[in-house]
Amino acid sequence: MLFGLFKVRDRSMLPKIKDGDYLIVSMIPYLFRRPSVNDIIVLRHPKKTIFLVKRIARASKKHYYVEGDNREHSEDSRSFGWVSGGLILGKVLYVVRA
Q1: How many alpha carbons fall within 13 Å on the CB side of residue 37?
Q2: CA–CA separation, 32 vs 38, rounded Å?
Q3: Rounded to the nearest 5°, which phi and psi values hold at 85?
Q4: Rounded Cα–Cα distance for residues 98 and 90 (Å)
Q5: Domains of the chain, with CATH numbers?
Q6: Which residues, 6+ apart, have CB-to-CB distance to 10 below 8 Å?
Q7: Residue partners of 86: CB distance under 8 A and separation at least 6
Q8: Spatial separation of the C-alpha atoms in residues 52 and 46, rounded to whole Å
Q9: Are 47 and 80 in contact (CB under 8 A)?
Q10: Distance of CA 75 to the CA centre of its chain
Q11: Is 83 exposed, middle or buried (0-12, 13-18, 19+ CB in 10 A)?
Q12: pLDDT digits over 81-97, tens only?
């Protein structure tokens, strides 16, 4: 995916990203380097058929521990564990306010 547009449908990244915001996402940055701690990404949920927007909290060679900024309203690696890099769709490049 060169670029994608996603609409946010939750509160897990408040206050930076709000319910209803649009995200411009791209895999291009990861053609030149691996995803890094503090990157905000869109990924496939490892157990459900939904997309998530999360921040990378920790990284190993091929796996990532992701968390939402709004910890009280976030389903993230605290509940489903580390995720493989293959689930990452891209880095959030820009947030378009709703």
Answers
A1: 5
A2: 17
A3: -60, -25
A4: 21
A5: 4-96 (2.10.109.10)
A6: 19, 73
A7: none
A8: 10
A9: yes
A10: 12
A11: buried
A12: 999 999 999 999 999 99
